[in-house]
Structures are given as C-alpha cells and as structure tokens.
Amino acid sequence: MPRIALKIDVDTDQGTATGALQLARALERRGIPATFLFSVGPDHTGRALRRVFRRGFLGKVRRTSVMKHYGVRTLLYGTLLPGPHIGKRRADVMRSIAGSGFEVGVHAYDHVKWQDGVTTADEYWTRRQLVLALEEFGEIFSRGPIVHGAAGWQMNAYVPGLQEQLGFHYASDTRGTHAFLPMVNGVVYSVPQLPTTLPTLDELLGRDDVPQSALAAHLQALVEKSGTDQVFTLHAELEGCAYLDLFLELIDRWRASGFLLEDLAGHHAALRESTLPVHELAMGQVEGRSGWLAVQGPAQPAVFAPATLQYGPATGGVVRETEMAGSDDDAGAGPLGRHGKRSGQA
Ligand SMILES: [Zn+2]
Question: Distance, CA 238 to ligand 1 centroid (Å)?
Fold first, then answer.
C-alpha cells in the first residue's frame, strides 16, 4: 500500500494562528501524523501578494481567492503595516503543535525574502537566512531543526551544502517523483531530498480540467497509478482554513483506501539511505504554478544509483527542466566542492 507523507507549509502569521492550529486539531482527532514547517521570522506576505496582483501572475479567479484566503490584514503586512514577527508572536502555537506530537521543521525565516531572493543569492546571504531560521527555531523549541522545506520550492546551489553543515537530516525543497541525494555541479550532498510528488490543492484549483468536486478523486487516482510513496504538500493558509473540509474529505478517502498517512520523519525512516539514487538538482516548471521551481533533475550514472532500488513511473508533473544555476565555481575548488562529498568518492 502506498504511503503518503503530509507536509504542511505555514507561510504567514495568520496561517500559523488559525490554519496550522485547525489542521493540527483535525489531524490529532484522527490520529494522523504530519510535518509542520514554520516560517519563524517576519511576515512580509503583503509585499509578495502586492506583486502577484500587479504582475497578473494569477488568473482572475485565483486573484480573488488570494484575497479571500490571505485576508486584508495579511495583504498589508510589509506594506502599510509592519510585518509581525511570527516566531515571537506565535511561539506558543508552534510549541503546542509540537507538543501534540507533530514533527516540526523550518520553512523559512522570512518567507517572502527567501522566495524572491534565494535563486540569485550568494552563499553568504543564503547561510545568513538559514542561520536566522535555525536560531529562531532554537528559541522556540529549545533544539535545532532537522527538516527543511524551502519556501516556494526556491533553492540555489549553496543550499544542499549548507544543510549538511547546519545539521539538517533531510529536506523537502523540491518537486519530483521519489527520494534522492541531490547533486550540484558534480558534487553529491548527503542530506536527502524527499520531494513533493503530488500536485498541490492550489495548483489543481487553477486548472479547468479538474473541477473542485473531482479533486479528491483525481489525487486518489494519481496515487493509485504511481503505486509509490508520496509526499503531499499542503498550506496552512488554504487547507487549514477555507479548504479544511475538502482536505479532510481527501485524507478520509485516502485512509479508507488503506493508504498509510505519515510525516516526513516516517517517510525518511522508511528509506534505505545507503542506496538512495543521485539526481541532479534542477529548475523546472510544474503545471498550475507559475515560475520556476527546484526539481528532481535527471538521475546520475549507475555508480550513484544502485540497481537494487526500483521506482515506478514519474508522477511529479514536471514539464520542463534546466540545470540549476547559481554557482560559477568549479565543483572542486568552490564552496560547494569544499563542503560536499565529491561525486567520485561517493
Ligand atoms: Zn510557503
């Protein structure tokens, strides 16, 4: 039976206070594990959403729904109102969710800053954002995080090496089909990527061919067709609020089908890390979402991917790929080479 890991991205102050909490309560009642990835620094969502409106990235319907789901206050954070510091303001909520037994990890320090800036940032900037998140997480939970899920699936070539150095055990920063060790510029990194394998609710809602009444059946069919373990990403701001009932219908359906619902820790524990395949970290596009995201690129030669691991057909919906940009360094001499395992030694 397929296993489905639930990864809950929490982007905003409001999403933490209401959406994350409502999801935690609903899942707790059902005894279902999930991983909550928090944004622990300032909420500057208003800046990002203002750009979304201006650029016209989303269709009319989706723009309306952004307004509905994020609310007027959130739209103003970082524009007319100062952005609230989520970690300082909502530490109790985050601790209570962890206290209920849910796995917690880092989504971002400043979600908007990461999402807009990381792909073109240098190593110093990237390290600073991760360290800020780590410190804030430590303030809240009195321990370091072991799981990271990049805001907006945005990455650069430095992130995998920094994750190694900063003590992360696994990460879900990418879109793809199955767990892998990321390779950047010829260097293989040891923090496994557990990519999001299924389309998200908001991606499906933007599609004309999948009416809302058919969403649960559509996702169910995707899981059954692939027959492999999945990671489903949901958003506290959507599935924890206006789409809570739809989400609960979905997971009740999954459970009735005998699918095992788990958190990323469970997903990670079920992997045989020593035999994980190596895939290039790439940028690609996903149906229903604008812009370029970090994706699971091509598999690397058999020396990196022992033949003992068999996976089913791709389900990630990645339609285009290109190589991950972001470092001109020679793989052996640059910061990536110093900190990563050289592919030849793997
Ligand atoms: Zn997010």
Answer: 11
What three-state secondary structure class fits 62? helix
Residue type, 272: R
Ligand 1 centre distance from Cα of residue 318 (Å): 19
Distance from Cα 14 to the centre of ligand 1, integer Å: 13
Domain count for the chain, please give it: 1
Give the integer Cα–Cα distance in Å for 185 and 123: 15
| Per-residue model confidence as pLDDT tens digits over 123-153 | 999 999 999 999 999 999 999 999 999 999 9
d(C-alpha 149, C-alpha 103), whole Å: 13
Per-residue model confidence as pLDDT tens digits over 70-98? 555 665 565 556 678 999 999 999 999 99
Structural domain of 29: 3-43+84-345
Q: Is residue 193 part of a domain?
A: yes
Ligand 1 centroid distance, CA of 271 (Å): 25
**H or E element that contains 134:** helix 123-141
Q: What is the DSSP string of 255-281?
A: HHTTPEEE-HHHHHHTS-GGGPPEEEE
Domain CATH code at residue 137: 3.20.20.370
User: Closest Cα to residue 320, out of 343, 297, 345, 344?
Assistant: 297
Torsion of CA 278, 284, 286, 287, to 10 degrees: -130
d(CA 148, ligand 1 centre) in Å: 12
